[in-house]
């Protein structure tokens, strides 16, 4: 019984570590300020890509700082940032961005 | 006369030897065996006596191990055959969605079982709409909070146009335990 328990425990432990902490990472994203609107967030195993619009450059950088302090998100970085399409509700200073980060358990 | 005396002596000697073999030697051998057995039992007794000190501790540990064994079987169930009902998995996922109050239609697809050395896995996908909070709770219940082990490969969230809801698309694996016997049988089949 002990051997069976240890074998199952080992498999469970290894596989749990390879499972993406997607719910936790999305929860971190949901705590971003209202200066950020995400249009898509995608997690592929331990890698996160999110696209959205920030009210300004400063808001985008503040987002990176906030996510940098998050428990499940590692090395957040802006992979791309451009002016948002004309007519964006955030006005002419709005920035469309693509955020990338790694995840950790 | 002398001949008779000598024959008598010889008969007595033979009778003495026979008596020794029948009446003394066999019991002596049995006695030796009994002594050896006694020593074995004495040693076993001393060993068990040493364990006796921890008997109550071992009894409580056995109960804990039984509980752990049950918990491990629940977290990582046995694989129950290649034809294992996909409906069970689908029902479990739908039930998790229902518990998280996700009432929209849940799209569910499932692949075939494959195996690795120590486990079987079966890919499945889920697509469901809902408010962010219950969607995240559902996602957590499918992955880290799962009663039966599932692992998440990819997950994406998109706002649902014209509402406050989001769409969750999920690729995941259902895992089942592969026992030593199953792994040995697979190796044997592969070798043939």
User: How many domains of chain A, as an integer?
Assistant: 1
Shape of chain B: rod-shaped
- What is the percentage of strand-forming residues of chain B? 15-25%
Please tell me the CATH architecture of the domain at 86-183 in chain B by its name: 2-Layer Sandwich
Strand order, main sheet of chain A: write it out. Answer: 1-2-4-3
What is the number of helices of chain A? 3
Radius of gyration of chain B: 37 Å
Q: Which protein chains make the most extensive interface, counting residues with beta carbons within 8 Å of the other chain's beta carbons?
A: A-B, 30 and 32 residues
Write structural notes for this entry:
The complex is a heterodimer of chains A (105) and B (192). By secondary structure, chain A is α+β, with helices and mostly antiparallel strands. Chain A has one domain (21-103): 2-Layer Sandwich (Gyrase A, domain 2). Chain A has helices at 2-18, 22-30, 57-68; strands at residues 36-44, 47-54, 73-83, 95-103. A 4-stranded antiparallel beta sheet of chain A has the order 1-2-4-3. The radius of gyration of chain A is 18 Å and the shape is elongated. With 192 residues, chain B is of the alpha+beta class. Chain B has a domain at 86-183: Alpha-Beta Plaits (2-Layer Sandwich). Chain B has helices spanning 2-52, 55-75, 86-99, 132-142, 180-191, and strands at 107-110, 114-115, 119-130, 150-159, 166-177. In chain B, strands 1, 2, 3, 4 and 5 form a 5-stranded antiparallel beta sheet that branches. In chain B, strand 2 and strand 3 (119-130) form a beta hairpin. In chain B, helix 3 (86-99) runs antiparallel to helix 4 (132-142). The longest helix of chain B is centred in the N-terminal third of the chain and has 51 residues, at 2-52. In chain B, 21% of the residues are buried. Chains A and B meet through helix 1, helix 2 and strand 1 of A and helix 2, helix 4, strand 4 and strand 5 of B.
């Amino acid at each position: 019984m002990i051997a069976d328990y240890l074998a199952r425990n080992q498999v469970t432990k290894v596989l749990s570590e390879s499972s993406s902490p997607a719910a936790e990472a999305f929860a971190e994203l949901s705590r971003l300020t209202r200066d950020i609107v995400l249009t898509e967030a995608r997690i592929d195993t331990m890698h996160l890509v999110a696209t959205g619009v920030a009210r300004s450059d400063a808001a985008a950088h503040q987002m990176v700082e906030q996510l940098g302090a998050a428990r499940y998100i590692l090395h957040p970085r802006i992979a791309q940032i451009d002016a948002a399409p004309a007519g964006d509700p955030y006005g002419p200073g709005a920035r469309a961005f693509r955020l990338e980060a790694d995840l950790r358990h | 006369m002398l001949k008779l005396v000598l024959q008598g002596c010889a008969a007595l000697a033979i009778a003495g030897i026979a008596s020794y073999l029948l009446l003394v030697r066999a019991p002596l051998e049995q006695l030796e065996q009994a002594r050896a057995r006694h020593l074995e039992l004495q040693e076993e007794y001393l060993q068990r006596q040493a364990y006796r000190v921890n008997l109550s501790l071992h009894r409580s540990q056995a109960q804990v191990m039984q509980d752990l064994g049950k918990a491990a079987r629940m977290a990582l169930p046995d694989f129950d055959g290649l034809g294992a009902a996909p409906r069970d998995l689908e029902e479990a996922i739908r039930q998790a969605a229902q518990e998280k109050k996700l009432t929209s239609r849940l799209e569910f697809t499932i692949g075939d079982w494959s195996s690795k050395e120590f486990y079987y896995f079966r890919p499945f996908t889920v697509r469901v709409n809902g408010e962010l909070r219950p969607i995240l709770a559902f996602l957590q219940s499918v992955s880290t909070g799962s009663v039966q082990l599932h692992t998440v490969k990819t997950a994406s969230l998109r706002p649902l146009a014209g509402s406050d809801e989001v769409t969750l698309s999920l690729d995941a694996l259902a895992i089942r335990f592969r026992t030593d016997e199953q792994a040995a049988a697979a190796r044997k089949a592969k070798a043939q």
